[in-house]
Amino acid sequence: MATTDYTAMWEGLGIDLEAHDELLQVLGAAYADVFLSQENRPEGMEYLDFVMTEIHGLRIQELLDVKKRGGKVVGTFCLYVPEEIILAAGGVSVGLCAGADIGTQQVEQLLPRNTCALIKSFVGFKLARVCPYVEACDLVIGETTCDGKKKAYEIFGELKDTFVIEVPHTKSDPAKALWRSEVGRLVRKMEELSGREISAAALRESVRVVNAKRKALQRLNSLRRARPSPISGLDALLINQIQFYDDPVRLTEKLNALCDQLEERIADKVGVAPADAARILVSGCPMATPNWKVPSIVEGIGATIVAEESCVGERGTRNLVAEDGETREAILDRIAERYLQIDCACFTPNTERLDHIVEMARDYEADGVIHYALQFCAPYTMEAYKVAKALKRENTPLLTLETDYSMEDAAQLETRVQAFLEMLEQSGRQQRA
Ligand code: BJ8
Questions:
Q1: Is ligand 1 within 6 A of the CB of residue 148?
Q2: What pairs with residue 95 in β-bridges?
């Protein structure tokens, strides 16, 4: 995909060049097929196309330059790891690849077959040595969210230096105290890794930088409320995926420029699909790069995804860190508070998520909701029952999908999505009659 020859850089990182070459070819073809074939894309997507072209090239070079200057590269797999703390220690935070089937045979020698695709993927990327991000990392930070992840980190930790933070599973006062102490433990770990003390000033600046990125993503999301939506769900998903590893300051600037263009498109009533295309809210498990399967099916049939209730979507961007903390400890309190607002299905009870799905369906004027869960993901497949009940009370149609990263069920998924869209069309017609 990249135009420069990065072979020496990849070799230096211990990448399996042959397998990596194959991966880039598959990725490049899939990207052209899914993204570049879309019609009437906003011009501002050119930057995101460039980032994808250089996904294993220029960005990795930038990470290695940071390391040369003494900064640390820290990999994460979950929204609960505070990016602000990594940045305040002079580091770079990268969300690691976990959205494709890689090294499955090797993975299944270490993990049970009935493990979710996301977990198998992050272990697979490491075993197959095809992800320069993971190889460039000085440390990976795991978290005790679902059972699968926390046990997988015990195994992953044998392959890569890994530090696990404890995420509680309730939001009780003792759980909040535990979480605040874990935030402190992470600060100490980052200070030890970077060899520098994390100051109040550095934290204040990193909170400002990450808040600015989240505000730009919030702005992008709110523009998708327009009818017709000025940007496809696929492109919005791509932006939400890229925000985990691109430079936050540069990306914020590019996103705000893109939003300016989208505002013009809205004023001119320019959209990516006709104004009467079905509007879909996708809710559920995160879609990590390069998992584009379900959105490409949904939008390939002519519907528009107008929002994602997902960690790669609004669950990850809707809350900001309050900027009124003055001392280092007060800023860390605010960071801890913000992160415990995330409504992942690993928490119990998790009524905030149900309320948020209902609110999003209303705000984005969604005709229907697709609940997306990865096979063997107990938190999201089980919570689907409560999501269905909450949406039924609102008379919002719901389609529940359970899938993995393979394309084997693509035709079957397409048939189910098609039937759902026809049902939406019919009920829309009845309402209008
Ligand atoms: S905050 S959703 S990123 S834990 S799909 S590995 S839950 S079995 S990814 Fe997640 Fe953090 Fe929550 Fe978000 Fe387990 Fe389910 Fe697999 Fe999952």
A1: yes
A2: 76
What percent of the chain has a predicted confidence (pLDDT) above 70?
Answer: 99
Of 140, 318, 374, 405, the residue with max ligand 1 atoms within 8 A of its CB, to mutate for a pocket test, comes to 374
The type of residue at 359 is: E
- Statement: residue 1 has pLDDT above 60: no
Q: pLDDT of 155-211, one tens digit each?
A: 999 999 999 999 999 999 999 999 999 999 999 999 999 999 999 999 999 999 999
Nearest CA to ligand 1 atom 4: 145
**The pLDDT value given to residue 315:** 98
- What's the confidence (pLDDT) of residue 431? 76
Pairwise CA distance, residues 39 & 74, whole Å: 37
CA of 386 to the centre of ligand 1 (A): 18
> Is the CB of residue 316 below 6 angstroms from any atom belonging to ligand 1?
no
Give nearest CA residue, ligand 1 atom 13. 311
Q: What is the pLDDT of residue 433?
A: 67
CA gap 268, 1 in Å, rounded? 34
Best CA proximity match to 280, nearest among 374, 400, 365, 401:
365
- Residues belonging to the chain: 433
User: Does ligand 1 lie within 6 Å of residue 344's CB atom?
Assistant: yes
* CA–CA dist 90, 140 (Å, integer): 16
Contact 236, 197 (CB under 8 A): no
Asked if pLDDT for residue 323 goes beyond 80, the answer is yes
3-state secondary structure of 153: helix
Looking at ligand 1, which residue's alpha carbon is closest to its atom 10?
78
Q: What is the per-residue pLDDT across 397-430, written as a single tens digit (0 to 9) for each?
A: 999 999 999 999 999 999 999 999 999 999 886 7
Q: Is 80 in the pocket of ligand 1 (CB under 6 A)?
A: yes
Query: Which percentage of the chain shows pLDDT scores above 90?
Result: 97
Question: What domains, with CATH codes, occur in the chain?
Answer: 7-169 (3.40.50.11890), 213-319+345-432 (3.40.50.11900)
Give the Cα separation of 358 and 366 in Å (integer): 10
pLDDT band for 97, please (50, 70, 90 cuts).
Answer: confident
Q: Which residue, judged by its Cα, is nearest atom 11 of ligand 1? A: 78
Ligand 1 centre to CA of 264 (Å) is 36
Give the atom of ligand 1 at the shortest distance from the alpha carbon of 373: 5
> Cis peptide leading into 274, omega within 30 of 0?
no
